[in-house]
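Is heme C placement plausible here? Inputs below.
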Amino acid sequence: MLKRLLTLGGLASFAILAAACGEDPVSPPPPPPPPDPVRVALIDTVRLLADQRNLDPVPGSGPVRPELVKLGRALLFDRELSGNRNIACSTCHLPSFATTDGKSLSVGEGGAGLGPSRTHPGGVFIPRNAPALFNMHLQTQFFWDGRVEDLDDGSIRTPAGTQVTPAMEAIFEFGAISALGMFPVTSRDEMRGELGEPGNELGAVADGDFQGIWSALMDRLGAFTAYRTLFEAAYPGTAFDDMTFAHASNAMAGFMISELAFVDTPWDRFLVGNDDELSDAQLRGAKSFMTIRCMRCHETDAFDDRDGEFHNVATPQLGPGKGDGPGGVDDFGREGVTGDPAERRMFKTPTMRNVELTSPYGHAGQFATLESIVEHYDEIDERLRDYDVTQVEAALRATLLDNFDDILVTRDTILLTIEFDEAGRDDLVAFLESLTDEAARTLTGIAPATVPSGLPIDN
Ligand code: HEC
Ligand code: HEC
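Reply from A.M.:
I modeled the complex. Tokens:
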């Protein structure tokens, strides 16, 4: 220590001397700082833990033909896909909000404004939080309850059952994600609108007649020469009139997969050997994430769930709900898909990649910040009971259900031993921030300059 002080003193007087002479000191390159033994040990531990868990960098997506991406880009940003031509996919999946809307719960058809300040004149909210559209090539189960999913036998399951025909399935190039875009357009609150609205032929189709909605949409798109050209370029050899909305949905998947794969993060660079990528706090957080059981569920390279299992992590319930429970204002999650009461309130384990960018968190956007959702895991049952509803927008606060005991019935018991202090929470958050791809921070360039309908673009 004494020797070091002396050196520092020597350097300082040298600098003063050099400054006095008005010359740049030609100082020798500073010796590399001695390795900090605590940090070195931590790096070794994190590498060992990651190795034991077979953690690897995640792969990017493969190439997608540009004509398909171009069509998908147009469709995803075009309000023409909504009954009253007032909302596009991108209205809720805004590039400027990391392909979410920055709201706890989305506001759909008939709403005004963009991002967190978007409101609906009738106070209507969509029951769940809008997830980001990142890294769809890594996922096999979509929506919070996995109701659009790839099955083990290579087929896909969707809420439309056999209305997704074998001919449609044959168009899907990317698995279940190719089918996903067929559903927001069928939801009245999200995009379709109501019966009896002038000019809204989509709203006039009966609920449940998915085929009717999809063919009405293709009639709409076919009215634009520009769309016919885009579709026929994306699917060479097929005439527009022989296509279905499966072609549109598959193109939107192609766009997401091609343009929204963001996998180059400090964590990945650390995994391949660059020690300097992670700060001490991020290393401590990584160690903790791997050892305090977060990875019992966030278990893959993308830190989502590999087994197709859904979990109840005791997040509170708010918003209009999915028609479940007393008054229909509850949300039973996966049970709604499988009919199995043992899966009540279980939701998909979301990926941790780019999670820093996609607040609010939870299936109903119950948590405003990463700190808040991570802290929820510290003595989880008490956290649920102490949940602070003021973190969500005022219009939603009164919708918080007082059903904590019910929620805890299926709460995963894995969670019961998890405990950490404030510093531990901050380390976990720091680790999660090492999963951000810098390129995902600025996305407004992914929007097209115009769309074939000429309608305004929500970016
Ligand atoms: C009104 C807002 C809104 C609109 C419009 C909208 N979405 Fe979404 N999106 C959501 C919400 C909310 C969810 C979650 C719903 C759920 O889990 O039940 C979601 C889920 C998704 C997912 C699943 C992501 C995941 O990780 O599981 C994808 C992909 C997606 N939307 C794409 C689209 C596309 C493509 C369109 C246009 C055809 C679209 N969305 C239109 C709000 C919207
Ligand atoms: C029992 C399985 C399980 C365990 C263990 C678990 N999680 Fe989760 N995690 C989930 C599920 C399921 C959700 C979605 C919950 C919901 O919305 O109701 C989630 C949501 C999250 C979210 C919000 C992501 C988003 O996009 O909204 C974060 C952040 C998170 N978990 C971090 C952690 C951390 C940190 C730990 C360890 C302290 C952990 N999780 C342990 C299953 C789990």
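Short version: The CA atoms of residues 84 and 198 lie 9 Å apart.
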